[in-house]
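Hey,

The postdoc asked me to send both predictions to you directly instead of through the lab channel. I've kept everything plain text so nothing gets mangled by the mail client. Protein one:
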Amino acid sequence: MKKYILYTYFGLLLLFPIVLLFLPATFFDSGDTICFSVLFFDQECYACGMTRAIQHLIHFDFVKAISFNKLSILVFPLLIISYFKEIRRLYNILF
């Protein structure tokens, strides 16, 4: 049973970036915020706009990404490194 869950997790990890590539860059741009800092204190935190910025970075829209969150330029490479480390870890476990 544990292997089945790991295979499912591995498949979802491989599918996730493909889905983000096929979504338009503006997919997350509209809608209300769910950030607790904005909802409770009416003040943006360091992560506000990060999802929208990362989505724009995936689509190589750097100017728009920086306008949403300047830290996304640092976070995006770290996400990529973490993603590939997790893929390699799961691959070593499963195969």
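Protein two:
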Amino acid sequence: MSVLDRFAGTASSTAARGTWLARGAWLLAIAEVLVAVRNHLSDRLSEKDRRRMVEIVRTSKGRPSNLDDGERRELRELIGKIEPAELAKTVASSGLGGRLGRRR
């Protein structure tokens, strides 16, 4: 095997490792966001509130038109407790938020 053949094989395997590492970085950033969201929700909603929110969304099948006025009001209050603006700031300051803002 010539030196050139060995170099070509090494370059392609290095490129493959780089691709794998880039995917790993994205997965790590997504995991960081998921942990931040979980922590944010658990800090602001009680277990009872979290269960109720899931129950409302599940019974409505994700469609607001399937909710009655009381359920809509209750869901709005639960979402207010979450403080979506604070959650957005948390996600934006995480690893993924920084990656999404960059354009090449």
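Summary for protein two, as requested: The first helix runs from residue 3 to 44.

Thanks,
C.
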